[in-house]
Amino acid sequence: MLIFERSRTGCTNPSQAPDDDSDISGIPTSLLRAEPPIIPSVSELQTIRHYTSLSQKNFSIDTNFYPLGSCTMKYNPRACNKYAMLPGFLNRHPGSSDRTGQGFMACMYELQEILRDVTGMAAVSLSPLAGAQGEFTGVAMIRAYHDANGDDQRDQILVPDAAHGTNPATATMCGYQVREIPTRPDGDVDLDSLRQTVGPRTAGLMLTNPSTLGVFERQILEVAHIVHEAGGLLYYDGANLNAIMGKVKPGDMEFDVIHMNLHKTFSTPHGGGGPGAGPVGVNERLRPFLPIPYVIDDGGEYRWAVEEDCPLSIGRLSAFMGNAGVLLRAYVYARLLGREGMQRVAEHATLNANYMMRCLEDKGVEMAYPGRRATHEFIVTLKSLKDETGVSAMDVAKRLLDKGYHAPTVYFPLLVPECFLIEPTETESKEELEGFVEALVEILKEAKADPEMVKHAPYTTPVHRIDEVKAARELDVAWQIPEN
Amino acid sequence: MPFIPHTEEEIRQMLDAIRVSDIDELFSEIPGDLHSGKLTSVPSGISEMDVGRIMLARSRQDGHYINFIGGGVYEHHIPAAVWELTTRGEFYTAYTPYQAEASQGTLQLLYEYQTMMSSLMALDVSNASLYEGASALAEAVLAAARARKKLNKVVIPRTVNPRYRKVVESIVRNQRIELVEIPFSVTEGTIDIDVLRAFDKGSVAAVVVPQPNYFGLLEDVDTLTDAAHELDALVIGLVNPTAMALLRPPGRWGADGADIVVGEGQPLGIPLSSGGPYMGFMCCRNKYVRQIPGRIVGRTRDDKGNEGFTLTLQAREQHIRRSKATSNICTNQGLMVVAATIYMSLLGPEGLRRVAARCHHNTNILLAKLTAIDGVYRCFETPFFHESVVRLDQPVTDVLRAIEAQGINGGIDLSEDYPELGNALLTCATETRTVDEIENYATHLDRIMSRRSLDPPCAEKVAG
């Protein structure tokens, strides 16, 4: 039932609204609203019941194992939420002076320093609002760098064919053409193709390492060399930083610019699809182009760097200074982990992925890159199941929901047919990993015995298989008051 | 101190199963010379209790100021239930609802949000949110340019928030879009309509129309909308959502209404929080739905015929279209939408209207009290919503600093962004300000200004 269907004209929550005695005679009548909006008139308790019951229709990390590859769905410590929501932080207006925000800014400055260390970069700006905006920021800096050097014939960004969709979309937003670099059968970048593609038009290469294929790009230094040699810059997509934190630094892999997804590696909540935070790090040559604002320590007092401090900056990406509350959560998380903890995160994320991969392999499940070590995630391919039974990876994903597991990422990366990208994260127990393995193996058996049953899964969720085609064809994106 | 559940024994069992001797062996594919990752400036891990101590001290250090600052984000009462519900683990720790059957809660909520927001704006469609107001405006500019294929000129008046104008510039810079700034009337504080009318018909892709504008003033949105449509340009409304509970919404501006509307959703139950996370909203007419970025949820059926919800029109998005997507945006601000939806439900249309009316009422009182002080004048007599500009007979920065020492945030100094207005102060009183607080502000301002004119500058005090 929709909240609008519970609405009754005249129902108000007087304790939540001011009295109706305000003087609005200063607003011309011609500018006033005539008809009320479709916003429900329901009691406070009705609202609470409605949204509580909606919440119960969700899978979430708190309720289910959620091995969504490339998304790092790890436990979100409650402390991070509690301490980011202290009144002194919540009530501070972003337009108030730096003098009134020294406590908050101390956290931000220290977070910048922590991220600088983790990534091995020269400087960090926290302002990008999400991973995709971090990518935009990074590529915009690459562009600004070439422009500042008068190097304006570089109009291409290279991306491996395994890249996240945000990579090519970002390159387009920055006015670049996209050229794809193929991946070899063993999961590493095809260096010969890369050599043939780079040239005077190459602005840069965007790369995720560990890659989206769940393997570490072993030739990373050769890749860096080839791109740098051609005058291009190397962009690090930090989606998979959880796999190498405290083990390898992107700066040491010779990346020039990186973004991090704090909602992945630093465990800020995914919130049903945001808010994220996508800080960027740069080496010395890109430092002048960092987006504003970022915190500087100005003789013991923190202040925001603004236009005057960095005239070459690519500018501002949001009205204020980024998703401050998300950054505070990441700061709390970083302090809880500490340097030893960060390294253990990477180790155990990797341990869990390799353990699951081995358990599945031992039960005959086919891996996309069997000879390779898993990083913090790995890819299963169900192509032979599809060929044999007609049951697709999506069908298996839906059936997993019936067994109480959120599905892994399906059909990504695009170059592996019928794939699952599985990322268990370091916070899951051995027992949970084994439960998932068993569920998946059982479904593969079901698919052979009764393919039709699996093709119509799920059965135990609040709704059965959703008709997405109908949703797009008969577009219904807002409820209307029924006639009569 | 990471959140790792394994015992030593379990770790051993897992390593044995993988057939490696230790965890380091799992990293054997990483070239040896890259194993240099020792962290040096990350401090050692501490307990939750110790982290709590640091955070509490820092949040207290920032103190609590009586706030008269607006400028795009506003202090409002947030019902206790909003964040109690929003931080339920089932909302807080879910991800983008790619698996619709396991995400009906988030999906239905987003559909309800889209209904409320599109109706509040009187437009057909709302997306499921963007990052925040300024970048939402940039996305609207890009969407309008896509809709008007051959045109690349977008008019942004100077009465639009200067930070928004900078953000739009940073984001659209590399997409061959020409942003044209148009001036305002220095006496009225609103867009100079004659400048807009002087553009050649068919030369402009879109015109941004703010309501209220950055000065808090009400623009003549009907005339502006009609004038923009006369030029064959799209109208991008940039509005405050609280105001729309009281004011005529953009879908009803002029003869045909605005085409795309964006704004900052923070006033709908989201804390100020030093700048974020907030949420941007974006609504449009049906005919532009394929041009707008961001998630959109549709109502549909499952294979048993039951009502259900799913992400739809994903062919616009980066994970399908890659380099041809409408935007690179991936996440939205899902959790903030949860808060905004619950906020709107708790207030209802009548509650929201009363909040809006009380904000206007309080700002009226604020302006009356402040302009009763010698040396403080109304900058514009134009009707306002819940914010307006006063002019002082002395530099605003110094006055604001002295007021801050009294525990009051007085407003925004406009002299840098709008030197043509002189010593101008943008100030605001929402429904959260009491008459006592307003009088207290006026008393201190009076004292500070008169003392400064006798014996400037005022001695600086430390905020308590």
- Amino-to-carboxy terminus distance of chain B: 36 Å
The class by helix and strand makeup of chain A works out as alpha/beta
Instruction: Output mean pLDDT of chain B.
Output: 95
- End-to-end Cα distance of chain A: 18 Å
What is the name of the CATH topology of the largest domain in chain B?
Aspartate Aminotransferase, domain 2
Would you state the CATH class of the largest domain in chain B?
Alpha Beta
Number of strands of chain A: 12
Principal-axis shape of chain B: globular
Here the CATH topology of the largest domain in chain A equals Aspartate Aminotransferase, domain 2
CATH second-level architecture of the largest domain in chain B:
3-Layer(aba) Sandwich
- Bin the strand percentage of chain B: 5-15%
Query: Major β-sheet of chain B, in short?
Result: 7 strands, mixed
CATH superfamily of the largest domain in chain A: Type I PLP-dependent aspartate aminotransferase-like (Major domain)
- Strand arrangement, major sheet of chain A: 1-7-6-5-4-2-3
**Shape-level CATH architecture of the largest domain in chain A:** 3-Layer(aba) Sandwich
Number of domains of chain A: 3
Percent helix of chain B:
25-40%
Q: How confident is the prediction overall: mean pLDDT of chain A? A: 96
Number of separate strands of chain B: 15
Tags for this entry?
heterodimer; A: 484 residues; alpha/beta; Aspartate Aminotransferase, domain 2; Aspartate Aminotransferase, domain 1; 3 domains; seven-stranded mixed β-sheet; three-stranded antiparallel β-sheet; 12 strands; 11% strand; B: 464 residues; 2 domains; four-stranded antiparallel β-sheet; 13 helices; 15 strands; 14% strand
